[in-house]
Amino acid sequence: MFFYALSSYFLLHHLPVRFRNRYLAGILVVSIFYLGVDTLFLKENNTCERQGLERLAQATEPVARISAECTVMSWWIVNRPEYTETNAELLKYWGVTKGKKLYYQEGW
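Request: output the structure for the sequence above.
Response:
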């Protein structure tokens, strides 16, 4: 992105005036496309993962069971608590949980 912006800036200042307006229009079209494409196709804004993290933050047991509707801090559903050792440490460090809480995902 830095080099895209830098090269665009350079070209806008060094292109002849007749090409500059066309290039500026092209930059605007490409920029609007890349800025807007995520909001057009992204319907879910991690609501499910946030609910899982809230459940984990409110859990009183050292190993919590959370819903398997979506993943939490993982690309796949975690079905064994020992796989969440690093995640539990990170959540404790960030202050999401009060202590180290392992978790697993089960059921729909």
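The radius of gyration is 23 Å.
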